[in-house]
Amino acid sequence: GIKTAILVGGMAAQKQERVLNRKPEIVIATPGRLWELVKERHPHLSNLRQLRCLVIDEADRMVEKGHFLELSQLLEILNDSQYNPQRQTFVFSATLTLVHQTPTRVLQKKNAKKMDKKTKLELLMEKVGIKGKPKVIDLTRKEATVETLTETRIHCNTNEKDYYLYYFLLQYPGRTMVFANSIDCIKRLSSLLTILNCDPLPLHANMHQKQRLKNLERFAERESCVLLTTDVAARGLDIPNVQHVIHYQVPRTSELYVHRSGRTARAANEGLSLLLIGPDDLINFRKIYKTLEKSEELPFFPVETKCMTSIKERMNLARQIEKAEFFNSRAKQHNSWLQQAAEALEIDLDDDMFMGKKASEQEESQKQKMLKGMKKQLKHMLSQPLFKVLMKTKYPTQSGKLLLPQTSVGISESALGAMSRQQAKKKKSIKLN
């Protein structure tokens, strides 16, 4: 049969070399690790010029200026004068034909070109080395997102995002991906949600590859789970049955919004994308909305305000605990390092040099007692039910195939069900008026 090999960074290079020694017909690789093995002159990669097929996934990102230098070096080898003229080259991306409005400051520069779909594709073809007239197959809608995706939003203050995120995770359990723009934000959310017993799985570039893969496996195995991630997981991941994508911070570009949202509603399944929009996110949100040429405004996600007081109490207490634990941990690390350095240099230190000042045993005991009390209080809060569950029911999908019985608020329904119910009410209200 046909043999395949996977070459990725962060994994043992020796093992991947052994896989290449089997002479696989298909090699799937990240640019960095492939270039490393090409430089080491592995025999199986010695004649890349005679490739029959070259496939570049997420092509627009791969050839973007300032990214994946190794791919540019590989393409130079692949496209020199000795390349196979019969080679077929395929490029894929959900945002290949997505074009931003060129900023005025860029257009004012000498020889600046206004970017359109044709120009973008021509530049891409030139970089990739596709000669002649390529066949372009565009399966994307004008909006760039799939029809089975329900897109929605919540406008709130920045400090309220934690409340709405926690509310959503409790009210609508399932496989949920939460995206943020920075690693620090992911770490903070991971600490908070761990304190609140949500058992989150973090994923970001500062983690070892093995830990990343481990967390992805856990996320794929559990029916109800939350993955907190930066945009390292926005592209190229195919995790089955992701029901919700939450943009804790609005992405900086339309491409990122499309790719993040594309982690759900895959293979004709339905999914929900929720934007948490704070005052700082409005500029990015408007840019995305304009680029994607949305014909209608994004609907607001329904929130049951009755339980928000309890949500806020829990979250505020969790924040206090997280802040205290973070400071204690940081202070201990700093003071320990300072003490070791002083001992090595055989010098005495003033108490003022210690972080948070050098606390007496009594003060330290009092702090721990207070922290223990807050944890006990939170444990009691978490033991109390927030939502009144009357019965379980199927939700009406966007296509309307499943119907929701007429019942009172508090039912355990899906996020899509809640959206459909709100949209139905809105339509009914418009008809009555």
Automatic annotation (TrEMBL):
Domain Helicase ATP-binding positions: 1-114
Domain Helicase C-terminal: 164-309
InterPro entries reported in the protein's UniProt record: DEAD/DEAH_box_helicase_dom (IPR011545), Helicase_ATP-bd (IPR014001), Helicase_C-like (IPR001650), P-loop_NTPase (IPR027417), RNA-helicase_DEAD-box_CS (IPR000629)
Catalytic activity reported: ATP + H2O = ADP + phosphate + H(+)
Enzyme class: hydrolase
Keyword presence, Phosphoprotein: yes
Keyword tags: ATP-binding, Helicase, Hydrolase, Nucleotide-binding, Nucleus, Phosphoprotein, RNA-binding
Domain of life: Eukaryota
UniProt keyword Nucleotidyltransferase present: no
Primary residence: nucleus
The protein's Enzyme Commission number: 3.6.4.13
GO cellular component, one term: nucleus
Subcellular location: Nucleus
GO molecular function terms noted in the UniProt entry: ATP binding; hydrolase activity; RNA binding; RNA helicase activity
Reported function: RNA helicase.
Sequence similarity: Belongs to the DEAD box helicase family. DDX24/MAK5 subfamily.
Entry protein name: ATP-dependent RNA helicase
Gene giving rise to this polypeptide: Ddx24
